[in-house]
Amino acid sequence: MANSVATENGKPSQTNGNTGRSIIIIGALFFIFGFVTWLNALLIPYLKIACELTTFQSYFVTFAFYIAYVVMAPVSTRTLNYFGFKKGMSVALILMAVGALLFIPAAITRFYPLFLTGLFIMGSGLAVLQTASNPYVTIVGPAESAAKRISIMGICNKLAGAAAPIIIGFFLQLEKAEELAGTTNEAALDEMALRVIPPYIGIIVVLLILAFWVYKSSLPEVEAEEDDENAVKTKKKVTDYPHAILGVVTLFIYVGVEVIAADTIIDYGIFQGFDFETAKSFPTGTMVSMIVGYLIGIVAIPKYIKQEDALKVCALLGVVFTLIAIFTSGFISVAFIALLGLANSLMWPAIWPLALADVGKLTKKVSSLLVMGIAGGAVIPLSYGGLAGVWDKQEAYWIVVPLYLFILYYATAGHKIRA
User: Most buried residue, 42, 77, 229, 328, by CB count within 10 Å?
Assistant: First the structure.
């Protein structure tokens, strides 16, 4: 364990060197779960063809992955209480490797439920990882600059997200898979399904190496700041903090719209007339947009703009960009779906510190609930998939407009509610 000196409230006070090493390790974690998470954008059209699925069925990729956060978030808290932050993150990485391992028999058998099981297990590992890493970055330094630190982590995450479609797309060869859409050639579909095995073997190896690195590292344990004595007597339950509960709802909504922007864009690009070869690069545009937003956040928060004001701006941009995407077509429409990455970029870094403000010793419990909110990535994109089947893939984007308006409410008033 790294050298640290306990302050009066029990929160470790680290040297700059130790803090820097800790941020590097957490940054590596954000990179790997960004890489794994944003692969879903490729898996949706890939498994749709390989496993002969409908559009609605293909969106169970996101459902299986993100619903794990609901199931595992309560377990995450107990896991971290038992193992501690550092060992708990190692356990989570090993669990993710087990989920990735299931992709091998799933590809051999072309059995869609087995793919979904692997995604669920990987999501379960990420639930533990997120529960530990996000509050760690939030409380490792001054609260007013928490969004800046999370923005740095977001860059690591989205750089991985930008790289994932390019790297894994090379193995999956979706441009060739387009010819197999609707085919009954079982041998060709079997060959296509096997393409997923080599990259996932690489993912397994990286996850295990990272698990060992974290386990052997000097990453310190970080405890939540204790509440003052009067607050402990009067506020002992999470429900005593309405701003935290609303924060969970807001995070649920935010993750849903973020996943829609990133994971539907390949399918939507094809709907707008682009081929697979071109469309597979569209998620990279979404990730680059998010990175630009994070860079703005690093420079501007809190020096030029407060966290809650950044959230307001992002919510408004989300509404405007969505409406432009709905009422235009072709490249412009797809471009504004990609630009939703910019609108979404500072939401995660702003929502976490706003929701964790003043919760004191309940930080882990609130963090667990916030991680459960990531299940918005399961429910909301699946709803989009259902609407896309009833209306079309462009009109279905109407679902995100009221969701962005709720985020605007939280940024304006919701985060201030304390009674």
Answer: 42
